[in-house]
Amino acid sequence: MVAILLWTIGAKRLGDVHVSAPVFMVACGIVAGLVFGDEITHQLNTHLAERAVELILAVLLFVDAVEVRGGFLAGERGTVLRLLVLALPLSIAIAFAVGLPLLGLPSWGAVLAIACVVMPLDFAPATDLLRDRRLDRGLRHALAVESGYNDGLFSPVLAFALLTLGSADKEPSGPLFGAVHAALWAVVVGVGMGALTGLAHRRAVAMRWTGTPAVRIAMALVPLITYSLSIGVGGNGFVAAFLAGISYKVGRMGRRGEDRDLAHRELSSVEDLSVITSMIMWFVFGAAAVLVFQLGFDGRSVLYGLLALTVVRMVAVYVAMLGSPVRWRDRTLLGLLGPRGTTSIVFGLLAYNATHAAGADIVLYVMTVVVGGSVLLHGIAIPFGLRRSATGTGTVSKPS
């Protein structure tokens, strides 16, 4: 919290010298990791930390769901559906298949959890890519929508993987039944809570019973209440929050919800809450990076992380786009432009908390390699390559 307070004092000045909030928080986390390393390691592996991370994930998933602009699939239905319905499960399958022999973990559940950690998109470390007019507008919109929904779609798979890690049953049927049971309750609670609250707000605003300030407060409460209700009945709390975000938008906008967006003034409170929770996660990532460096060099984890950042996603995207009108250049960009960020950190911490012994260190190691590598690849290398390409072709378009 102190690090966030310090950032608020110099946020504008830091921005002027191109030091983003995630970079500042990572730096503070590194300092904390160097000073309080053993204490941080102990705190990360507690039930309280697990619940706190789940609650943060619930907020992030809710915001991702309600923030998608331009309608449910932002006008890029064909491309987005291929990315979400085909490329997403393919990427998990490929990451899982690569991880089984490469990581050498005795538990397939741990490998599946790691696959869920390394694949979700998050443009927090590379926000300029979504505003860069050197990239096709449709491509940018498709990536924005994918990043808004993909973490919520990864969540049930991660929940199943975590259940296998915590189950004494060696057969997958037991954890699978538990995951389905939790998912069903998440649907009931999430869709019900989101739709009813959204509809109530739409009618109340229309009848002038309430206004924007009150709706802002409610939107910050919806993911927290939804998470608590779902956990209380045995459901998956963060999946419920994601579904609540989708159904809230539909209930709030009514028939206009397909092609209209929620007003920014209604989203501001929950967006601010999302920013704070994201900054906390970047701080934790910095501290975790110190712990990883103390483990020494692990070639298998580094190789797996690099493959996940590049080859795994690109193969999944290429296969998903077979027969589509998307140009090959854009298919390559869709495969390359997949930054990892807050979602991978949160998923990684949940997997770390659920994994035992040496497997936990590998989870933390891979998460650090993927997120750190993404900052370098998507935050520095690819923007530099785009600038060089634009200069070579005489293009003068700049990020908007």
TrEMBL record:
Location of the protein in the cell: Cell membrane
Domain Cation/H+ exchanger transmembrane, first and last residues per copy: 2-384
Pfam family, one: Na_H_Exchanger
Keyword set, alphabetical order: Antiport, Ion transport, Membrane, Transmembrane, Transmembrane helix, Transport
GO process annotations (BP): proton transmembrane transport
Molecular function, one GO term: antiporter activity
Transmembrane parts of this sequence: 17-36, 48-68, 80-102, 108-127, 148-168, 180-199, 231-251, 272-296, 302-321, 333-352, 364-386
Protein name according to UniProt: Sodium:proton exchanger
Organism: Actinomadura harenae
Lineage of source species: Bacteria, Bacillati, Actinomycetota, Actinomycetes, Streptosporangiales
